[in-house]
Amino acid sequence: MAAKPYHHGDLERALLDAAIDVVRSDGIAALSLRDLTKAVGVTPSAAYRHFPSRDHVIAAVAMLSREDLARHMLAARDVVPARGSAQRRSVARFEAIGHAYVEFAIAHPTVFEAAFTACPVQLERTEDPRAWEVLTLAIDEMTLAGAIPASRRKDAPIIAWAGVHGLANILTGAAVPPGMEADGQIAAVVKGIYRSIS
Amino acid sequence: MAAKPYHHGDLERALLDAAIDVVRSDGIAALSLRDLTKAVGVTPSAAYRHFPSRDHVIAAVAMLSREDLARHMLAARDVVPARGSAQRRSVARFEAIGHAYVEFAIAHPTVFEAAFTACPVQLERTEDPRAWEVLTLAIDEMTLAGAIPASRRKDAPIIAWAGVHGLANILTGAAVPPGMEADGQIAAVVKGIYRSIS
DNA sequence: CGCACATGTGTACGGTGTTCACATTATCCA
DNA sequence: TGGATAATGTGAACACCGTACACATGTGCG
Fold first, then answer.
1. In this structure, how many other beta carbons lie within 10 angstroms of the beta carbon of residue A87?
2. Residue among A118, A122, A195 minimizing CB distance to B173
């Protein structure tokens, strides 16, 4: 019943939640340990009981953001209707994933930026959904369904990822090309990717 | 003859040169106004006579880095031999540009990062070589030479840029896909781009 | 109960961007 | 030519940041 117990309970989780809030509203660059700890109601030094440095909390929110993106891709894939041939359906699922990738970046640019920020510190991999695996899985589906030739299967993942990742970066970044709206470009790139691997 | 004249002469240029050095060796995140001014032999406040804020010098080196990239692309394009049909040559020039884009990013990752860093401040456009225009120019060449159908000309630039830009980001970033070496991936993506627009 | 351990506090240090009054030099006009 | 005026650099100060370290406080286990 003490309004402020000395021990917080789950400071690590609370700090990460606060960090995600900051990223959502002001971007990863605005993330400050002092702000985070103040928002949680704790002293700056307290954070160091859970993260060795600011870079480690950045790396943690980057990983959470990548999981967020991967979940969006999976959700978009699983929502495509089951009608049509297995071949057409595998392509529709693949294209849904590509659209979701870019649309996530447009809808949440700061989160997307945080997801692929160059983090000076590396976290050990966890077993979470990753964009790369979602993409390769969809490509395997297409290969099995006969939508793309087996000979292209090897290079397809990097081609696909480069396309959607590049478009997402371009559309959310400072260097937007002149005179085009996003929707048409997403469709153009996703269709282009499929054409180049089929 | 005074060893240290009160006025520097061209502080703006000197600061930008120092900034580029820092970016080359330690990346854009390590750029500090105090370091820059110290390297040039001047007081921190002096920088504010030439740049309104640190963000503006970051924006300036970003623009210089983009010009650097564009120059590399042009150089690679202009070095492809003139033999063969105009059609084959236009494709070779296009592919040389794509390779140069990604190879520049690999050779100078910190400069590439700086080039497309999300700068909180926007500079008015100058008339310098830009990657986007180099790419579209090469695509126009291919269209005229009959290497790609005119119907694909409209979507080709965004497809091409997304592909090389995405691959460059992936290969220089933290999220490298497992078990592949860069060279093969560059060739795969550039070939894939050409297939998707031809 | 008592002791070890985990967790949060307080204070301090060096570094940062930025501001502002002031000193110095260059430029241009009467 | 000389003196006002604008351009440029200085110095000290402010608020903020990440981080370290000694210390206080609570938790859980023998």
1. 15
2. A118
